[in-house]
Amino acid sequence: xxxxxxxxxxxxxxxxxxxxxxxxxxxxxxxxxxxxxxxxxxxxxxxxxxxxxxxxxxxxxxxxxxxxxxxxxxxxxxxxxxxxxxxxxxxxxxxxxxxxxxxxxxxxxxxxxxxxxxxxxxxxxxxxxxxxxxxxxxxxxxxxxxxxxxxxxxxxxxxxxxxxxxxxxxxxxxxxxxxxxxxxxxxxxxxxxxxxxxxxxxxxxxxxxxxxxxxxxxxxxxxxxxxxxxxxxxxxxxxxxxxxxxxxxxxxxxxxxxxxxxxxxxxxxxx
Length: 271
What we know:
Elements: E1 9-14, H1 21-35, E2 61-67, H2 72-84, H3 87-106, H4 112-123, E3 127-136, E4 145-151, H5 157-170, E5 185-189, H6 222-227, E6 232-239, E7 241-246, E8 264-269
Antiparallel strand pairs: 1-2, 1-7, 3-4, 3-6, 4-5, 7-8
Helix pairs in contact: 3-4, 3-5
């Protein structure tokens, strides 16, 4: 099997807009105050999260696929491909598929003309999602990533994202993945954790390192998943843009007050 190409960018739906960012920030501040220092005796020390591992509101997004774009020409080609897509038509087609499937399931029969008309109407409506709960990547007892789940009452988000990933994969810009698309908004990533002294070390909330090498860079999130299972991070978050971003969030000159952000190589608004 050939080696995996170096990953440089990713295709995503940014979630932090001027409308949604205040709610996301408020939720993250509440979460941070609850989990980054063991002031509440009921929080296990191994569930304490380093402050630097909690992602700023401006980084929240849904990843559709990862990309290997090693040259400026490849980046420009991917951005041009994105700008050349008719996103409204992609949304219309996925809306039609969703409605047709719904009609078959509920036994409505659904005439083709009516489905198409309804899909056209849906394409004029922005997808709005709710970010809910907390889940772990991999084993919750030793995980490095925690995320919120996007819920879409219209059922259009998943098909829309899958369709976008597929067209970018077929065009050779997104690396083909065997696994299905798991939409998630990362709120904790231990890759960004730093040793900060008391209350900030990985694995312990009391300044001591966690036991055993297997806990390095990981936390036991079992307790947190139960506590935050029904938490609503934000409601009515509108999916408004598709972007191609550079890997690795960082502080950008002139935007220091925002904390880490993902630098966008190019993007388009969803009409």
